Amino acid sequence: MAQHDYLIDNQPGAAFRADLNAALAAIVSNNSGATEPATTYPFQWWADTTSGKLKLRNAANAAWIEIGSLSDPNLGLALKGAIAASGLTMSSGKLLGRTTAGSGAVEEIIIGSGLVLSGGALAINQSAALIYDPVGLVQVQTGGGAGFYQRVDENFNPLTYGKEAFVSHATYRGIVEQIIDGQWMVKIPKFWFKAGTVPSGAYAGKEYWMISPVAKTGFTVHPAFIGAGGVELDQIWVGKYKAGYDGSSKATSVPGVAPMVSIDFPTARARAYARNTGGVSGFRLWSVYDLAAIQMLASIEMGGLDIQSLIGAGHTAGSSAVNTDHALELQASWRGLFGLWGNVWQMCDGLKRNGGTWWRWQYNVPGNTTTNDFSTGYTNTGRPALTTSGYPATFDTTLLGAGVIVPATVNGTQSDGSTGDYLYSNTSTDDRIAYYGGSWVNGADAGLFCLYVSNAPSNAYGNFGARLAKV
């Protein structure tokens, strides 16, 4: 990263050469930096590493024009196609081009499974997912090792399309990678949800969850997008990678580093909060609400809860941790989020088991930044927390309706479970903190729904890690 005022002073040869090289470095890096250049010029480029955007100074030298994302192919902009007789061309699943008459420009139309181009005409495929439709998942039958699930529409009618249909869905299309404060993050847009048991019809009494990209009757904003005081958030950001450590004070979300391990929960919190300096705010450990949003979205898209079997095993049969961008972490990824299971356990804030009862954050932010405070901001759900381990079979539908996914019943036999994953619990009566995903030794028991609530906040082990998030 380099910036320069592009004013080369009269000076001795060596100093002149150094000053000139600095100016050239600023040019080739597009004046990259976390803050705007001190001296600006009309039509000057700035690679803003704080927002992850490429910007251009306007002609009046009065403001910056946002061009595109530094982390997206083609800056997140569609390429212009050649003009065809129809006025449009087809390229990589998009309609691109301009009308031959030159009146009005067709910049881009996304061609998902809900749109069909045939004979130059664009038609809607009624059997496919429409961009703004609610979509959900019903647990048709428990057991079998991974349960049996069915995608459904808003009225609980079965949907026959596969995960390819989600290319065009507004919520899933809004999940994108961004760089914030030099950290690789994944933005998840606000969505609405409802969950519990199906009220009537063929699936009456069955457990389900459902999401919508827009407000609809019967849906509420998912708690991942409810900030301090109940204020709605347009999005959250979750670390693309498991948390690393910068060696000084801050947790990171970057490729090519070892995961941050062998620290207790308060220390992990402190390293996440340490990012909130120099105008940066909102960083913390990921929360149970962040995770629940991911669990709902991923399971609906994949059509089941045994995500490890549906996507990949990940690093679950090894002898030590691997780097955050290792091929096995890529294997355990969904929509840009690396290593969602396996490698090292991930501390998850906002949920605790106190004896036989679940407690959760009131909002998707900590009650305060006192790192060893596990009371302020928490509410007693009054819901029973399991104190025995096993394979989850059913879920607590009351907490489901509150946007949190925790088991209501477990079974000691893997083939009688409904997620493919495992719940680790014990009879301790004090605060026990949530860890998710499993580690390098958990094999098939690891996964997106694997939960560990047997450890006190003070515990620290070599396979206990974390993940950043931001609001």
Using only C-alpha atoms, the radius of gyration works out to: 25 Å
End-to-end C-alpha gap: 26 Å
Instruction: Describe the sheet with the most strands.
Output: 7 strands, mixed
Q: Please give the domain count.
A: 3
Specify the number of helices.
7
| Shape estimate | globular
**Roughly how much helix do the residues carry, as a percent range?**
10-25%
Number of strands: 29
What structural class is derived from the secondary structure elements? Answer: alpha+beta
* Unreliable spans: 79-114
The overall pLDDT, averaged over residues, is 90
Our estimate of the beta-strand percent is 25-35%
InterPro entries: SUMF_sf (IPR042095)
How would you describe this protein?
- InterPro entries: SUMF_sf.
- The protein has 471 residues and is an alpha+beta fold.
- The protein folds into 3 domains: 13-75, no CATH class; 76-124, no CATH class; 135-470, no CATH class.
- Helices cover 12% and strands 29% of the residues.
- The protein contains 7 helices and 29 strands.
- The protein has helices at 13-28, 170-173, 265-273, 288-302, 307-310, 327-331, 397-401; strands at residues 45-48, 53-57, 64-69, 89-91, 94-98, 105-110, 115-118, 121-124, 135-141, 148-152, 176-180, 183-189, 192-197, 207-212, 220-221, 235-239, 244-245, 251-252, 283-285, 345-354, 357-361, 378-384, 391-395, 407-411, 423-424, 431-436, 451-455, 464-465, 468-470.
- Strands 20, 21, 22, 25, 26, 27 and 28 form a 7-stranded mixed beta sheet that branches. Strands 10-9-14-13-15 form a 5-stranded antiparallel beta sheet.
- A hairpin with a 6-residue loop joins strand 2 (53-57) and strand 3 (64-69).
- The protein starts with 12 loop residues before the first helix and ends with a strand.
